[in-house]
Design brief:
This protein has 400 residues and is α+β, with helices and mostly antiparallel strands. Strand 10 and strand 11 form a beta hairpin. It binds FE2/S2 (inorganic) cluster (FES) and fe (ii) ion.
């Protein structure tokens, strides 16, 4: 039976942790609060170390609205700085990536070396009276940690260390990423018309796998699919018990035994969700790291990196790339669907659609249980100071 407007608008008869208000995806004030209380406060995946292969290699990117530059120094150490000139604030590095021993700001030509020190101020004798000097004009350093080849940054100098933040959540990745050097073999950037949390949710709830033709064949038809359990770590990171999938059920696809990544059985699948906006998926011969740069409540840059073995033969690389793209390429059979579905939600709920989203599946914390999404929103609520089930009412009360 359909529902009247009054019935439809009613709060669900569920525990608050079992549903969210769809305002959390669309409200500009909530987005601004997320930026301060979540994105600027936690560790963020920046890039893979293979993207900074040589001394002086750099990359720029925006995180929580702040322009950053990450660079490999002559000592091999990867460092990050706020990419904004100490003089008047201009972007110092304007290329997306490159190699440089020093940077010159285009505006008035202040110069910086790649340790972030200011090395030249043109005609600086005019600052003698005011005391402006190179020694006190370095770039702002941003905390940087490299684990298993992945580079993470944190804008909050007082936040817990990366190891404390991630805890044991990388335990499934250690044998895969710790054995041989890996490198980025594919990089896709998608601007998605959906809130960033809708994109993270598809990595945290596998009930949606009905969406994917290939997942229905390769994963849902394989033994153990529904039995594997989620493991939830402190700070709302999560992993799923590994399972072996059956690629060969798709005509023309192979089981991928030959080039299986270290530490895996043929067909093995692993997934690691890192709060709030990063997901690492291992799919036998390839792996993928997804991260997001939210531009606003309704627009998100989704960056996806495919990884292969560094230095492998051209034939092996071609096979690995094929495996990656069969699933995850722009025309792959899985990836685009995980963009279309969040966009379908966002388009409907941005004004006048369903007021609540349900995360009320309980299957003993097994595959299609919503337990990781509930953990995510418990952490989200703790950091935001409002419940995802009732964000505006609580915010209004807090403001009174
Ligand atoms: S803003 Fe960079 S030198 Fe003036
Ligand atoms: Fe999916």
């Amino acid at each position: 039976m359909s529902r009247t407007e009054a019935e439809w608008s009613q709060r669900p008869r569920l525990a608050p942790r079992e549903y969210v208000s769809t305002q959390i995806y669309t409200d500009p004030d909530i987005f601004a609060r997320e930026r301060e209380r979540i994105h600027r406060a936690v560790w963020k995946f920046a890039c893979h170390e293979s993207e900074l292969a040589s001394v002086n290699d750099f990359r720029t990117f925006d995180h929580a609205g702040t322009p950053l530059v990450v660079v490999r120094g002559p000592d091999g150490v990867i460092r990050t700085f706020v990419n904004s000139c100490s003089h008047r604030g201009a972007l110092v590095v304007r290329e997306a990536a490159g190699n440089a021993a020093h940077w010159t700001c285009l505006f008035h030509h202040w110069m910086y070396d790649i340790s972030g020190a200011c090395t030249a101020i043109p005609r600086d004798q005019a600052y003698a009276e005011s005391g402006v000097c190179k020694a006190e004009s370095g770039l702002r350093a941003v905390r940087t940690a490299v684990r298993l080849g992945m580079v993470f940054v944190n804008l909050d100098d007082t936040a817990p260390a990366f190891d404390d933040y991630v805890g044991d959540a990388f335990e499934q990745l250690e044998p895969v990423m710790g054995a041989e050097p890996l490198e980025v073999i594919q990089l896709y950037r998608n601007v998605v018309n959906a809130n960033w949390k809708l994109l993270q949710e598809v990595q945290m709830e596998l009930y949606h796998e009905n969406l994917h033709f290939v997942n229905r064949q390769v994963a849902m038809g394989a033994p153990g699919y529904f039995a594997r359990k989620w493991k939830i770590y402190p700070n709302a990171h999560g992993t799923l018990e590994p399972m072996q999938q059956k690629y060969e059920v798709i005509a023309g696809w192979e089981q991928r035994a030959e080039k299986t990544l270290p530490g895996l059985k043929p067909g093995e699948f692993r997934i690691v969700d890192l709060f709030p906006d990063t997901c690492i998926i291992v799919r036998t011969t390839v792996m993928r790291i997804d991260t997001m740069v939210p531009f606003g409540p309704d627009k998100t840059l989704l960056e996806s990196r495919g990884l292969g073995i560094k230095g492998e033969s051209a034939a092996d690389r071609a096979l690995r790339t094929k495996h990656h793209n069969q699933y995850w390429g722009p025309f792959g059979r899985n990836y685009a669907e995980d963009v279309i579905a969040p966009e379908a939600v966002h388009r409907a709920i941005k004004e006048g659609g369903t007021p609540y989203g349900l995360f009320a599946r309980h299957e003993d914390e097994r595959g299609q249980d919503d337990v990781l999404v509930r953990s995510f929103y418990a952490e989200w609520g703790r950091r935001m100071g409002v419940a995802a089930s009732d964000p505006k009412a609580r915010a209004v009360r807090a403001a009174e």
